[in-house]
Amino acid sequence: MGHRHRRGAVSEKGVNWKPAASEGQFPGLFCGSDKSARHFREGTMILLKNCYYIATFNDAGDELQGQDILIEDNTIKKIAPNIAPPEGTEVIDCSHHLVMPGMVNTHHHLYQILTRNLPGAQNAKLFDWLVYLYPVWAKIDEEGFYYSTFAGLMELLRTGATLTTDHLYLYPAGLKNSDLVGIQFEAAEKVGIRFAPTRGSMTRGKSQGGLPPDEVVQSPDEVLADMERAIARYHDPDPLAMRKVILAPCSPFSVEETVMVQTAELARRYGVLLHTHLAETRDEDEYCLQKYGMRPLALMEKWGWLGEDVFFAHGIWFNDEELRVLAETRTGVSHCPSSNMRLGSGIARVKEMLEMGIRVSLGVDGSASNDTSDMLGEVRQALLLQRVRYGPDALTARDALKLATRGGADMLGFPLLGKIEEGAGADIIAFDLDHPQFVGALSDPVAAIVFTGYSHQVDLSIVNG
What is the pLDDT of residues 145-167, one digit of tens each? Predict the structure, then answer.
């Protein structure tokens, strides 16, 4: 069946839930292919009744009042006033709610939840921050990866995300035989969120001139073999899959050239997406120029890392010509405003990117550089940060929300999500506007959730119907 959550309905005991022992420890990971359980029961119907305001984010940008949304199985069947509920339909009163598509988070490092707010990393720039935290992360075990994933996904779900990726590139030496992608999928199953994580990688340790310590990197052969295994076992190409796999070497300063090239070849052989960090800091520019004699994006072009199947995290330091290349190749950028501010990395040129037709989405980034997984909060930060750089009309509330809905669904390869229309996937969230935090703000119910309020929690979240 699908997953529906109301505020307060998910017990806090869930955070302390301990999986039963099984082969390898986590249940459900060792019984053949784990690609595609749809999680909805055929014939299930839900009626969102008398919606106060619906922001559809469809191609026309329609906004509706006083209409109903009928969900059948995992898709939206009908949108109209006064729909008579078929027998057996669950009816949910939305007469005080802003209803909109579930949001999509396109960059994260969920394991970092365990190292939030460490004093030694609170005031460091990216490279220093990494050097401080790598040895700490090297000690994370399977249980740590499970519970950090669980906790981060809960935060995302409660703040409006119904679909997320995760960039797990850290594989400690003691976990060589662990199925970390499978452990993450198990946590996502428990939470009830749609999940498209990456099989990340680092292969260049400190002894080879890289930034990470050797105990958290793997050999190229280990990485490529496990990437292929993860795709074969977990990736579901269905447009409304609950599970997809993305391939994501960490960065140009932690992965060898051969691995970058072969990862791109592997991804295209299987039809999966590619992701990595790029153009996040000036230090990265200097590293690439010193080691390769070219800027980061030129490296990506050389290695076959441009195209509609590629999206980069951050993209702060692209120059004018590089922005043109991104636009021409349809290469995407996951904008992470909170992390960029937290680490003092800079302000991405999102307003200009959008004007040039570059594909842009939003990511909360790792919970040790944000330090939260607040999806609606990231929408607000995106709006405010662009206004710092470009002025008060740089990004509207709807622009920012569109990055988090249509932008994210497009980036992760889910064309039926990020919008409310008949035939679209039933990933829907609702905010209760009958609340003191929205007093005086309802002249524009859509912008209200971005500009006002002290809690970013949704009142209702529906994932896959």
Answer: 999 999 999 999 999 999 999 99
